[in-house]
Amino acid sequence: MDHEPENNQQSSPAIILKDIALLDDYHVMMTLTAEGELQSVGYERWSLSMKNVLGFIVEGKQIRLKAVVKRDGGGICCGDSDGFYFARKDFVIEPLYEDAKDRWCYKLRQFLESLGRPKRLLVFVNPFGGKKSARKVFAKEVKPLLEDADVELDVRETKYQLHAKEIAKSMDLSKYDGIVCVSGDGVLVEVVNGMLERADWRKAVKLPIGMVPAGTGNGMIKSVLDSAGIRCCARSATISIIQGHTRSVDVATISQGTTKFFSVLMLAWGLVADIDIESEKFRWMGSARIDFYALQRIICLRQYNGRVLFLPAPGFESCGQPASISLYKDPPVSDKVLGYQGPETKFEDLEWRELKGPFVSVWLHNVPWGAEDTLAAPNAKFSDGFLDLIVVRNCPKLALLSLMTKLSDGTHVQSPYVAYLKVKAFVLEPGARIDELDKEGIIDSDGEVLARGRRSYKCDQKALMSYDKLQITVDQGLATLFSPE
Ligand SMILES: Nc1ncnc2c1ncn2[C@@H]1O[C@H](COP(=O)(O)OP(=O)(O)OP(=O)(O)O)[C@@H](O)[C@H]1O
């Protein structure tokens, strides 16, 4: 039997039910407090928070509680050894009298309903992402837990790229309490973009989105779970969705003229983008492709001409040099009702700063983790209204290699070769490679190729924007995510 720590110091909360019952075959005095603690006094003291009860079923005279219990250290869940994880566990209560059983069922149901958990979820499963394991992850880890919690599911397998975006753009919002993506970050980004392209985007962005890691890059769910000290795995991710807490997350609008892309994770240009996109050709290697190709890219290091401009967050006003700027202005269109157009703040007259190239890497991050093993921006916050900017310019190759090894714990930002700051708005003016001026680079946002310059790596993806000036503005806490706290 699992025991939760007791706190005898505090005054006892009001008891709303008290009966003699059998708990796992032992006679106990079972109580339910107004704060949702199930407690027993009998052969041993035991307690279980209703927050950790997914649901219950009645089996004859018995009530089977379908619960989860926290575990620290020890066993490995999905290969990640950091933080605690949840294990599934049933507890069986048998009140001595039939009317007591009905009372318990009534109160337990009432309590669970008062928690405001999602009851109807739209679930996207991407059978194509990552190790192509999403179907299995859904069937083995996600579905059984959601069934235990009595959640009604509408499951859609994505059939092609942008399928999830299409559905998010046209779905009936009133039918669901949230969306779940059993995928990598790519499907999440599609859903956010679909929501923001709706005429009723203000309502759509309030619908919480949950992630279950089943892709190559699971940076968002790693960031969400890690911030609560929980290991990143499908089970913990699903439990945090069932528990129904939410948090807001900043959305960055990347614009080039009237073309827009909404990003919740990151934008990269230079080394990180080249590794991310060009390593696709080594996909057969699995996750080793990133390390393998990073090594290759550092040995034959590229540097890019260009300029970045930024509006520094408070505390970072001395970074870079003062700069003047002209930003794209959205035409005063009446069709604004068609979708979100980016934050309405006027950034032009503020004190912009600049950094000039050549650049090895320019990386903007919204949340701390870029992937499960990459703590790209250790100080990033979900909804502070700022993006973390990580810039590498001149850097010896050996130091660069050492930086790559530090990405897993975020200590790369302490290097003297790295500029690490927070910005409110950002402009990228990408240029050509310094060694071969007829070759340009790739701009990558949230794992998608946003722009591809002349004679850069060719891949199947069609780029949304041209390899030219881009501007990025942040809307604080615009989207909503399921989160453990
Ligand atoms: N059935 C499908 N066939 C091909 N592509 C698909 C399919 N369903 C979804 N996709 C695309 O797969 C891409 C990657 O999805 P996902 O978010 O699951 O993984 P990822 O970790 O971001 O990327 P990947 O695993 O491909 O490196 C998304 O851009 C999505 O549009």
Task: Write up what this structure looks like.
With 485 residues, this protein is α+β, with helices and mostly antiparallel strands. It folds into three domains: 100 residues, PH-domain like; 125 residues, Rossmann fold (3-Layer(aba) Sandwich); 221 residues, Tumour Suppressor Smad4 (Sandwich). Helices cover 21% and strands 34% of the residues. The chain contains ten helices and 23 strands. The strands form three sheets. Strands 12, 13, 14, 15, 16, 17, 18, 19, 20, 21, 22 and 23 form a twelve-stranded antiparallel sheet that branches. Strands 4-3-2-1-7-6-5 form a seven-stranded antiparallel sheet, with helices on both faces. A four-stranded parallel sheet has the order 9-8-10-11, sandwiched between helices. Helix 2 runs parallel beside helix 7, helix 3 packs parallel to helix 4 and helix 9 runs antiparallel to helix 10. The longest helix is centred in the N-terminal third of the chain and has 17 residues. The structure holds adenosine-5'-triphosphate (ATP). The site of adenosine-5'-triphosphate has 21 residues, from helix 4. It is found in: Vacuole membrane. It is a peripheral membrane protein. This is sphingosine kinase.
Gap between N and C termini? 26 Å
User: Which parts are unreliable, with pLDDT below 50 for 5 consecutive residues or more?
Assistant: 1-9, 74-80
Characterize the largest beta sheet: strand count, sense, and whether it forms a barrel: 12 strands, antiparallel
What Rg, in angstroms, do the CA atoms define? 25 Å
Q: Any idea what the shape is?
A: elongated
Bound molecules: adenosine-5'-triphosphate
Total helices: the number is 10
GO cellular component, one term: plant-type vacuole membrane
Membrane topology: Peripheral membrane protein
EC number: 2.7.1.91
Organism: Eutrema salsugineum
